[in-house]
Amino acid sequence: MTARSKRGIFLKSNLLALALVFSAGPTPVLAAEPGSPAAAVNVFIGTGADGHTFPGASRPYGMVQLSPDTQVRHFRQSYPWASGYNYADDSILGFSHTHFSGSGHSDLGDVLLMPYSGDTRLEPGYPERPFTGYRSRFSHDQEKAEPGYYAVRLKDHEVDVELTASERVGLHRYRFKQGEPAKVILDLRTSIYNYDNKNLWSRLRVRDGSTISGMRETRGWAPGRQLYFAVRFSRPIATRQLLNREEAIEYKGFAQPGKNPGDRAMVEGKALMGDFQFDVPSDGTLMVKVAISPTSEDNAIANLDEMPGWDFDAERGKASKAWNEALGAVSAEAPAPMRTMFYTALYHSMLAPSLYMDRDGSYRGPDNQVHKAKNFRFHSTFSLWDTYRALHPLLTLLAPEQRNADFVRSLMAAQQHSPYGILPVWSFHGLETWTMIGYHAVPVIADAYMKGIKGFDAEEALKAMTASAEYGPYGGLEHYMKLGYVPIDLEKEAASKTVEYAFDDWTIARMAEKMGKKDIAARYYKRAQNYRNVFDKDTGFIRARKSTGEFRTPFDPNVSNFGSDYTEGSAWQYSWYMPHDNAGLISFLGGDAGLVSKIDQVFDAKGIDNMYAHMEDISGLIGHYAHGNEPSHHVAYLYNYAGSPWRAQERLAQIMATQYSDKPDGLAGNDDLGQMSAWFTFTAMGFYPVAPASNEYVIGRPFLDKATLNLPNGKRFRMRADNLSDANRYIGRVTLNGKPLARTFLRHEEIVAGGELVFTMQDTPNKEWGKEQSARPYTQTRYQ
After folding, report:
1. 613 pLDDT band (50/70/90 cuts)?
2. Residues 309 and 379 placed together within one structural domain of the fold
3. How far apart are CA 517 and CA 512, in angstroms?
4. CA count, 13 A, side-chain hemisphere, 76
5. Which of 82, 127, 372, 612 has the maximal Cβ count within 10 Å?
6. Residue 485: CB partners within 8 Å, gap ≥ 6?
7. Where in the sequence is the domain holding 293, given as residue range(s)?
């Protein structure tokens, strides 16, 4: 899901060059080597407006995502803080260990710690009233971050904070002012997307003189979510209080005559806190390790062993190395700010799906039971309605094969544990949220299989895919299978569901065909044509039908509402969604000129500034084109299918210039667990996977001077854009391995074989390149 962009927040200078003036300890410096991919990343891009990214510390696909939370504890105002942090804020609530990167819904924010000094304050207080609680003001001038590392000075407490992480453990380093008491609050009440009684139950207990553990169960976006944790301090706990704030009235805050609840070694309830004080050395340093677990406190304690010792700088160096290895999948050359934007987009594309498994292989499934992974690593946080489009195709190209196999096996494991026997729709921490539409784990698996990813059972995968596509009670599928479309009088958002189901069906057919399952392939190729049943040739739009067969009236292509004919969109955004059969779309619109004219109408529409103001998920508008929401992401590339790739080149330049920047508000909408960033990554390199599982990438135009894909198989695929400049935005000619390339698409096998793609750019369009029918990307009929 995405949200309306609110432009106008700016960085004063390059954040990677900002100096921190900390009063205690040395000034933090970058761990990433100058010129390295990690050093190019600006983690603050997307933290402003409604990008909903976070600036904290994590490893690639890490289970712990340790970051500052600035949100106000008021659930009616949760949206700006979907990741816990918003760049417009000037105070920090604390540092929690679980976050979404760019989601349109809020949750997580588990195990919040806050170092402080001075008087004990057990409530967070108010941003506008300093010193009313443990919340502290901060300044961006005293904030620094890079992949795997975050640092800030808490002005009100005079504490310098540094954060880094391994996969399952977050490491904090605090430096307190000399002579000031060293205190830490642990608040289990707080969550991102806070509301009354979100905590169903929680526990906090002392394990030894420096270790505590606990758990909490919440009723948030994923109901009944359980999370376990262990906290170990580098110094013995000098004094402590374990408090259940439900008892605050009875105990008048802390105690009642004859009782001191803080002395307890264990406390249970719905509003738990820990308050700890330490004797620290003369430099004021205290470190804290926090491990999380999906299964038990004992496993959380065992997960602490992933980070032995207390060498913060060494752990930070390991995190930086891990990011440089991951980001090193692409060696990109471009002037600022393009290089920064590219590597930041690639970074955001590698935060999810995230590991969600203990060191011994234990994980929690959608049945909320504990299972054990065998020969794979279980991942969760699958925002599939968003990420099947570009994020997963990007990872099948750049991430190690085993990582992609782990994603597929995680989806299959979730299907096996599902009470409904279907693949995930939108899952995190192992649990299903039922958010958005489609059965989009299907194209993720199909795309991986079609591209030769090994390490999973294809037969079992296909069974899981068809089980999901034939589960009648889900999303009107029983009507879809019977009528050939989802009827609007029986199921909301019916037009969108019909076309998205049809694409998913096509990917099943592709995989089944390659496996030699001709009967399954034929059945699903037929289902893939169901999009035709909701295309109205008279108006040229996708429309919802009733169960009696007629289109619903009255019809206005501008209308968008939650639960209407379309999902987070209008007819203008959804009527071009048959990426597996754009030849069919062209025929419906009367030929090439009809498609070009219709897409021009999308981009060139005027006077619609307030048309979508009531829909926070429709953002990044250029006419009716909504780049901040995923249904539009392939539209600019459709010009290639009509033999006019030069028009795509114009539109892509327009999108890149207006929808992305190197500022905190540099995303036109929610990053959606990396989809917005994956679109940018592909587009900057010059091509895009319009139809995952087709094994073809549609050529747009490059935005990087040079790029080398350092592929998992050890091969290198190099791209070069000669004469690239703002003025030279058109492709004059293309060569692949020294030979002219007449077609406007690349095949996956050409990339993974290694080679060189050279674009020669010019200031006028080449209207002949890609014009011929044989030069155009795939159509449905080529595969039947």
Report:
1. confident
2. no
3. 5
4. 0
5. 82
6. 479, 494, 498, 530, 533, 534, 545
7. 15-325
